[in-house]
Amino acid sequence: MGLREIKKKRTRTAIADAALGRFLEHGFDQVTVAEVARHAGVSTNTVFNYFPTKEDLFFDRQAEAEDHLAALVRDRTRGTCPVVAVRDDLLTALQQEHPMLGLQPGASAFWQVIQDSPALRAREREIGERIEAALATALTEHPPNTAEAPDSAGPPLSALLAGAIAGTHRAALRELRRRIMSGEPPAHARDSIASAALRAFNLLCTGLHARSEQTSHELPAPS
User: Helix count (H) and strand count (E) of the chain?
Assistant: First the structure.
């Protein structure tokens, strides 16, 4: 990385850090971009050069988050179930208490800022939709081996499977957030979510690889 790139990265980090500090102290809706610029020691135009919208200042790692599940599917070892790839990544993150999960002290304050801002809640939903869309694309391009059609998954199956995988992942993180914000000890919440996530993802994996005749008797006939 050249000096120019290093300087740009440092400037971006300084702006994001200044913004987060103000948001945590005063709330997202009460802080202006101009105020963030003053605390970061840059102009308002410079802030917008790095962060096109105010919401981008808060979710400064949005692009990374949006591609994470898709990258797991793209980069998995051939023959590995995509559900397993996502499951194992989440369980490892929980075990290692990855900072993005919010198991460290102070995480509740970050989540409270989101809860208190309609704009941030809307952006969070958009991020979830983009995660799912990117995952569907990855599943189409790197399909799972299924009992019905090994190494084959068209757009309809990929879209539905992406919704199931991303939805389970999102639900696990949402429940973790709820438990911690309600005052549950983080270690206890982590272990409970890990156990539940393991069971949920295993059910998805089992269903994905089962033949239709193995599961059709469990489905009610259309009326």
Answer: 11, 0
Q: Burial level of 31, CB count in 10 A (0-12/13-18/19+)?
A: buried
Q: Nearest 5°: phi and psi at 209?
A: -100, 0
What tokens were used for 101?
């999960």
Q: H/E element holding 150?
A: none
Q: Specify the pTM.
A: 0.86
Residue with tokens 């997202």: 28
Question: pLDDT tens per residue, the chain (223 residues)?
Answer: 788 889 999 999 999 999 999 999 999 999 999 999 999 999 999 999 999 999 999 999 899 999 999 999 999 998 899 999 999 999 999 999 998 898 888 889 999 999 999 999 999 999 999 999 999 999 999 988 765 554 455 668 899 999 999 999 999 999 999 999 999 999 999 999 999 999 999 999 998 877 644 444 443 434 4
